[in-house]
């Protein structure tokens, strides 16, 4: 039997917790509304340092009150600094789950990047265990921060469609699932504009977009094709059911130079689900 689990969500938005897990929402710092979704987001990182000691105090109290014996953390944002500091102070062992390169992830632009990298480097060497999304990033981190053993763990489906799924004629229902990052906004706008062209060419087609992402950072125009935004789904079966009503799976990928290491070392976990679905991407 698995021991009790407490989830501590340090993100700025509140998503539904897993149905069998208790969750506490503990933001590292106050947020600044819509401006957080602009190119100025990285500049607000200076407030992470301002509120760090307060966050560490709250985190210590929660870990002690719940008698936490082990920590499993995903180092993407500045919270790798206070989380590992508190873990070391309380002598709580921790595991790292490396999903993206910290210096080029969607959360990578940060005025205190040096502190993030230093904390990750120390955590990489001292963690009780390490899980990585790919062998490539495991090898790269071993080169950067010190050679060590790691295990490759990739989220996604456990079965693969035997053949491509047949889709109805005159139907173009586009589906996206996962976190919708601010950097996807221009790409989504281009997609919506392209779908309007297709609608004009084929007015009898069923064309729509469904995004199971809790929110999208893209203003919609009055003449856009229908866009439905659904909350995150804690159960993979919900996503599988969504896909029964989809014709095309949408996956924005960054190809700019700043994101080169994303393609080199990481794999979007939603891509695993997409690849096994039998639907075109």
How would you describe this structure in keywords?
about 280 residues; four-stranded parallel beta sheet; alpha/beta; globular; 10 strands
How would you summarize this macromolecular structure in one to three sentences?
This protein is α/β, with parallel strands linked by helices and 281 residues long.
What Rg, in angstroms, do the CA atoms define?
20 Å
What structural category arises from helix and sheet content? alpha/beta
Order of helices and strands: EEHHEHEHEHEEHEEHEHH
Tally the helices: 9
Q: Which range does the strand content fall in?
A: 5-15%
Tell me, what's the shape? globular
Major sheet: arrangement of strands: 3-4-5-6
Which spans of ≥5 residues are poorly predicted at pLDDT below 50?
A: none
Mean pLDDT, all residues: 87
Strands, total number: 10
N-C termini distance: 38 Å
- Give the helix level as a range of percent: 25-40%
Largest sheet: 4 strands, parallel
Structure, explained:
This protein has about 280 residues and is of the alpha/beta class. The chain has nine helices and ten strands. The chain has a four-stranded parallel sheet with strand order 3-4-5-6, covered by helices on one side. A four-stranded parallel sheet has the order 9-8-7-10, with helices on both faces. Helix 2 crosses helix 3 (about 80-90). The two termini are about 40 Å apart.
Any chance you could write out the topology, listing elements then pairs?
Blueprint: E1 6-9, E2 22-25, H1 46-50, H2 52-65, E3 71-73, H3 80-90, E4 94-98, H4 113-126, E5 129-132, H5 135-145, E6 151-152, E7 171-177, H6 185-201, E8 206-212, E9 227-230, H7 236-243, E10 248-249, H8 260-265, H9 269-275
Parallel strand pairs: 1-2, 3-4, 4-5, 5-6, 7-8, 7-10, 8-9
């Amino acid at each position: 039997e698995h021991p009790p689990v407490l989830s501590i969500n340090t993100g700025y938005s509140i998503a539904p917790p897993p149905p069998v897990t208790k969750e506490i929402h503990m933001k590292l710092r106050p947020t600044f509304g819509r401006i957080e979704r602009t190119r100025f987001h990285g500049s607000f990182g200076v407030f992470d340092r301002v509120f760090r000691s307060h966050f560490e105090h709250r985190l210590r109290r929660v870990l002690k009150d719940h008698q936490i014996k082990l920590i499993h953390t995903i180092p993407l944002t500045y919270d790798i600094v206070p989380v590992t500091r508190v873990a070391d102070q309380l002598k709580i062992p921790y595991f790292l789950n490396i999903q993206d390169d910290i210096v080029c992830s969607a959360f990578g632009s940060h005025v205190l990047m040096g502190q993030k990298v230093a904390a990750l480097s120390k955590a990489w060497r001292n963690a009780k265990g390490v899980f990585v999304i790919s062998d490539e990033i495991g090898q790269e981190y071993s080169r950067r921060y010190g050679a060590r053993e790691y295990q490759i763990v990739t989220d996604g489906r456990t079965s693969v469609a035997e053949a491509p799924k047949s889709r109805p004629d005159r139907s173009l229902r586009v589906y996206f699932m996962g976190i919708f990052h601010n950097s996807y906004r221009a790409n989504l706008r281009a997609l919506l504009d392209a779908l309007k062209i297709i609608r004009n060419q084929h007015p009898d087609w069923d064309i729509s977009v469904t995004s199971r992402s809790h929110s999208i950072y893209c203003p919609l125009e009055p003449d856009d094709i229908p866009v439905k935004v659904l909350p995150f789904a804690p159960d993979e079966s919900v996503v599988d059911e969504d896909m029964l009503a989809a014709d095309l799976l949408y996956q924005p990928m960054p190809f700019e130079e700043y994101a080169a290491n994303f393609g080199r070392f990481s794999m979007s976990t939603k891509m695993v689900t997409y690849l096994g679905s039998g639907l075109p991407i």
